[in-house]
Specification:
homodimer, about 350 residues, alpha/beta, Rossmann fold, 3 domains, six-stranded parallel beta sheet, six-stranded mixed beta sheet, 13 helices, about 45% helix, elongated, DNA-binding
Chain lengths: ~350, ~350
DNA sequence: TTGAAAGCGCTAACAT
DNA sequence: ATGTTAGCGCTTTCAA
């Protein structure tokens, strides 16, 4: 049986009220009893029953975070970031996977049932009628990460995806590339935004856009590496080969680099590469790969801070939108590992 | 304000008891009222206050899982596995990162405070006085994953780490390798166990052990790839080069393969490789890499089932130890991607 | 400085 | 088939 306030009270011949006060740091208790209580509580290894406390106070000091899947390192970064910004305020975090959105509604119900003080949702898909209804009827603060739901009220923290494409492209242009290929991602809104950024960077620099240098690399078949490799081979067989390549993921970029080496190209003399995601393990393989970092950690931190503000009793009721800027991570380029 | 039992009761002129019964599926209610209640509850979007329910029943239907870090895909797999096995029993899962054990105690306190019905702990380090104390005083079922704590009572689910080394080595032997190198991992108990398995497999097959073919590859400096690459170069410069290489991680193995190709060796004709971890993205790069899979998902499932048994009211009070067998994933070997 | 009473929302165990 | 009473462990409020 866990130790309760009542138990400590009985042992020390005090009322449980006094114990409660001491343990929460109220000041209207004599130093003497305070010391006694603290010591006994420690000895007995008292842990307050948070369930009971929450029922009484209406605050659980738990925030809920729903991610599409566990074990994706990007979502892990987000979770870490959220934790980091809320823990010092005494909040805990419950992380639930939505199985790529399939179980999103159930998880939301679960977390709301558990009375979380704020709900953070990392979503891939756009809109959902469910969300709209939810955000109308619900008093629990809602924070959307990554994608906003059309028509849903709630705050939003996201990556400026267009910048991801823009920065990558600008980097290559800065290195002197003129014919830039894009191994582009899926036709989701994220994929499209990055693509738009790529196009914008080209036109900002007054460079021509070459449709034949855009390759889809997110089909379901084959590994990412292979899709990069195959896509690059196709590009190299065509006329007018690229002198710069950007890819939707780092592993795709590695594939394209290998294909280029296979064709006898020299990196970086005749062709340059940039990935996205900044997956360090992958970027630090045989040829160091520069990459545009999607800062999951910062995303999480910002979202966490927003959740705090909304959950606090400060009466802050508004919602806000914040975009996090992606960051280029440059890596030295050497021909072969030494 | 969220809807409460009392609200529905007032609206329908019933007692909250009746509402409670209907919503929990008790049978001693007339079909008529049952229908009325169900409908109104749905309309109002009633969500039971789990906090209150838990306080009353003493069960939270939440399990806690502590992992060293979020975003490591292995731990993600474990979490998925746990979820999968407990969700159908109505349990939810709270996942907390321990920042590589640094905040282990605080997270444990937090979760116990939250009255989780069972606590699963993925740990890297051995022993800890804290654990021993905990397991003695605590009534909450404890399940350790990966590493057991010396002297701690609680169930244990782990990988048979010795088999990881054994299987990898046996695989190479089966392919005809006689001089097998090991790019070994850190000098933790896991690293040592795998190493022991490697040695055992050699001696089972009557092959000589060559100490000069064992290389440390888990130092802190340089990427895993680089450590594999450099380690392999050293081996190839030495006399009596290996004809089979096993590595503590897949990325290390890729590094060793590259170094070998650089030296003009042919894979698999003159040398064969096997990794561990079965990181699919990495294994399916230019040269498909066979790897010993550490089945995080199965680990999680087993741990989840054990947690269910221990948390259930079945009165099961014992503890058990289970070892999960690692599994070799063979991949076809081609010289270069086509 | 200490404590008694009341109640958060729910349900187990009993009436009716 | 429906409702009453009591209480889970805690904290808010107010009194001693």
């Amino acid at each position: 049986m866990p130790v309760r306030l009542k138990d400590i009270a009985a042992e020390l011949n005090l009322s449980k009220m006094t114990i409660s006060k001491v343990l929460r740091g109220q000041t209207d208790v004599s130093e003497h009893t305070k010391a006694r209580v603290l010591q006994r509580a420690r000895e007995l290894n008292y842990r307050p029953n948070t369930t009971a406390r929450s029922l009484r106070t209406g605050q659980t000091f738990i925030m809920g975070l729903i991610v599409p899947s566990m074990g994706d390192s990007h979502f892990g970064d987000v979770a870490q970031g959220v934790m980091q910004s809320i823990r010092s305020a005494g909040y805990g975090l419950v992380v639930c996977p939505s199985q790529d959105e399939e179980e999103l509604e159930q998880q939301i119900d679960l977390l709301l049932s558990r009375q979380v003080d704020a709900l953070l949702i990392v979503s891939l898909e756009e809109s959902a009628a469910f969300m709209e209804r939810l955000s109308k009827e619900q008093t629990t603060p809602l924070i959307f990460i990554n994608r906003r739901f059309a028509g849903a009220a709630g705050s939003f923290v996201g990556i400026d995806e267009e910048q991801v494409g823009h920065i990558a492209c600008k980097h290559l242009i800065g290195l002197g590339s003129k014919r830039i290929a894009y191994l582009r991602g899926p036709h989701t809104s994220i994929g499209d935004l990055r693509y738009a950024g790529f196009r914008a960077a080209l036109s900002d620099a007054g460079l021509a856009f070459h449709p034949e240098l855009v390759v889809d690399a997110m089909g379901a078949e084959g590994s990412e590496y292979r899709r990069g490799f195959d896509g690059m081979e196709r590009l190299l067989k065509g006329r007018g080969r690229p002198d710069g390549v950007m890819a939707y993921s780092d592993m795709i970029a590695v594939g394209t680099m290998d294909a280029s080496l296979n064709h006898g190209l020299r990196i970086p003399e005749s062709i340059r590469f940039v990935g996205s995601g900044n997956d360090v393990k992958v970027c630090e393989m045989r040829i160091p790969l520069s990459s545009v970092a999607i800062q999951g950690h910062e995303l999480g931190q910002k979202a966490g801070r927003m959740a705090l503000r909304m959950a606090g009793k400060s009466g802050f009721k508004g919602t806000r939108k914040v975009l996090v800027m992606p960051q280029l991570v440059e890596r030295g380029i050497r021909l072969r590992p030494r």
